[in-house]
Structure to design on (353 residues):
């Protein structure tokens, strides 16, 4: 398999072809390689009737977990730049192999394929050995608690990228103590996925805070949305995530748009979630909200193990103040997740309406 060294461009628009879920991994790799080199149509993660500019290789539709899904147009140059910067960071070289453990309907899974093309190899499954892998925190939790096969596979990897959702400090420590070499990643579909690794930017990437929101700049930025432009301020893409800078490293605090207002007070669902996951180790815990006539929105907790209301309330009040007090705690057999591994808060709210 050849990897793309030169991106060819045509002066006319090109077709957009939906990725066929029946394609084998080699078939998808071939189609993706053609899209990256300009020898074939651009690919889309969802069926779309549009044509796109010749520089576009992928159109990735976001999950819409916190709003309306958006179709993000990504150029071949941006995608390849991200793959090469990742390989520079983790010390990968031609012939190294990735494992594909994420869905290819999202940028994280597609990035594994693009990195594999760059290294001239075909990604493997959990049944085989690999040098590198990329997972979400939910998969890491399962590897450390119930899935011995996945743990064994990850233990054989030199480096494991973990992104897509916040990684609790407790889970990170557990993984490290068992010999897993983790690299936490942060980014968005609009940045071709992760561009901040272990709190520091990949080569060519910059970050700063604008009104407490994380802003990113670099060659990985998307060309635009399929039906609109991406809001860029002097080259900076301002995300919907809140952050802070500690000792020169970026710390992601949570999404600005996952805040609820309960009794007139703002509560960050992701901040509550991350804190509880640290305090109650080895439990899957999700914070979600429901409409309420008294509070406007009320904070609710879902967990897979027994957890008392008093225990949760005392922890949260001590950390965030008296206003951060859950009104409901639900014990569930399994937390619902979106395909990329993010908790499906909307489904939880509907299930317990």
């Amino acid at each position: 398999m050849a990897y793309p060294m030169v991106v060819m461009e045509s002066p006319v628009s090109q077709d957009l072809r939906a990725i066929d879920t029946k394609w084998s991994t080699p078939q998808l790799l071939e189609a993706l390689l053609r899209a990256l080199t300009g020898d074939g149509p651009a690919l889309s993660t969802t069926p779309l009737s549009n044509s796109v500019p010749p520089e576009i290789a992928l159109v990735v539709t976001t999950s819409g977990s916190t709003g309306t899904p958006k179709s993000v147009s990504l150029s071949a140059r941006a995608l390849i730049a991200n793959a090469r910067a990742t390989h520079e960071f983790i010390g990968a070289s031609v012939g190294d192999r990735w494992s594909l453990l994420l869905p290819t309907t999202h940028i994280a899974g597609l990035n594994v394929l693009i990195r594999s093309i760059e290294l001239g190899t075909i990604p493997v499954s959990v049944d085989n050995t690999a040098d590198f892998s990329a997972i979400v925190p939910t998969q890491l939790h399962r590897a450390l608690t119930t899935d011995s096969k996945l743990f064994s596979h990850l233990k054989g990897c030199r480096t494991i990228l973990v992104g897509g959702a916040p990684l609790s400090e407790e889970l990170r420590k557990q993984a490290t103590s068992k010999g897993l070499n983790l690299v936490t990643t942060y980014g968005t579909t609009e940045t071709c996925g992760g561009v901040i690794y272990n709190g520091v930017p990949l080569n060519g990437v910059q970050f700063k805070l604008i009104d407490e929101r994380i802003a990113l700049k670099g060659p990985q930025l998307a060309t635009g949305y399929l039906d609109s432009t991406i809001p860029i301020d002097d080259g900076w893409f301002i995300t919907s995530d809140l952050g802070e800078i500690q000792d020169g490293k970026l710390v992601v605090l949570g999404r600005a748009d996952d805040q609820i207002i309960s009794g007139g007070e703002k509560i960050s669902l992701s901040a509550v979630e991350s804190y509880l996951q640290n305090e109650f180790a080895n439990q899957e815990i999700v914070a979600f909200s429901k409409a309420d006539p008294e509070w406007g929105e009320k904070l609710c907790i879902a967990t897979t193990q027994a957890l008392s209301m008093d225990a949760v309330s005392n922890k949260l009040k001590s950390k965030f103040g008296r206003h951060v007090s859950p009104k409901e705690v639900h014990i569930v057999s399994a937390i619902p997740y979106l395909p990329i591994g993010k908790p499906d808060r909307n489904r939880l709210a509907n299930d317990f309406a």
